[in-house]
Amino acid sequence: MTAPITLDPRQARSRLHELTVIDVRTPGEYAGGHLPGAFNIPLDRLDRALPDIRTAAESGEILVVCASGTRSANACRILAAHGITSATLVGGTGAWAAQGHDLHRPAGAPKTTWGMERQVRLTAGGLVLLGLLLALSVHPAFGLLSAAIAAGLVFSALTDTCGMAAVLARLPHNRPRRADLDATLLGLRGTRNGESR
């Protein structure tokens, strides 16, 4: 499979008015700041949105974004497997903000959730520490927990995937409410009918 099409933040900024932007981060990450006009469809909910994304792609180009570019590249591969052409934002919202471009933060948005990378670091570090403490105080076999987490992190780095992030994304604070996703899909349908975002 070929690499996804990419746009750097400068290119995306100049074309933002003509792109349909889909942010595949968790709702909490999205609420913490996203590209103007972006629709939040978390990566693990992409399959539900495929018909609407396909129709939007017929009307214009799709730009997929996340925090750093990894999840959006994965989303582009999923979309490509379903015949939908899309591009990913190189460096994600982090690179967008680093170049001085505005991130939209809804007024009155609920308290934001930590970014997924930070959640993974906390969970992995906590599990490694727990394994070491249990190995010292209860039984040495608990050291295998720390070894398993370390092996998972190495595998994650080599494959550019993260099983722990996939599990954490399923926690309630990282999940969109059904009504929120329905509203997002309705908004996505509205943009292809010429309505404003």
Structure notes:
Helix 2 links the parallel strand 2 and strand 3. The chain has a five-stranded parallel beta sheet. The protein has nine helices and five strands, in the order βαβαβαβαβααααα. It starts with a strand and ends in a 5-residue tail after the last helix. The longest helix has 22 residues. The model has no long low-confidence stretch (mean pLDDT 86). It is elongated. It is an alpha/beta fold.
Contiguous helical run count: 9
Beta-strand percent range = 5-15%
Which structural class should the secondary elements be placed in? alpha/beta
Uncertain residue ranges? none
| Structural shape | elongated
The number of E-state strands comes to 5
Helix content: 40-55%
What is the average per-residue confidence, as pLDDT, rounded to a whole number? 86
Q: What letter string, H or E per element, gives the SSE order?
A: EHEHEHEHEHHHHH
Biggest pleated sheet: 5 strands, parallel
Largest sheet, order of strands side by side?
1-5-4-2-3
| Terminal CA distance | 33 Å
Q: Radius of gyration from the CA trace?
A: 18 Å
Helix/strand layout:
Blueprint: E1 5-7, H1 9-15, E2 19-23, H2 27-31, E3 39-40, H3 46-59, E4 61-65, H4 70-81, E5 87-89, H5 92-98, H6 116-137, H7 143-159, H8 163-168, H9 178-192
Parallel strand pairs: 1-5, 2-3, 2-4, 4-5
Helix pairs in contact: 3-9, 6-7
Short description:
It is built from 9 helices and 5 strands, in the order E-H-E-H-E-H-E-H-E-H-H-H-H-H. It has helices at about 10-15, 25-30, 45-60, 70-80, 90-100, 115-135, 145-160, 165-170, 180-190, and strands spanning about 5, 20-25, 40, 60-65, 85-90. Helix 3 (about 45-60) runs parallel beside helix 9 (about 180-190) and helix 6 packs antiparallel against helix 7.
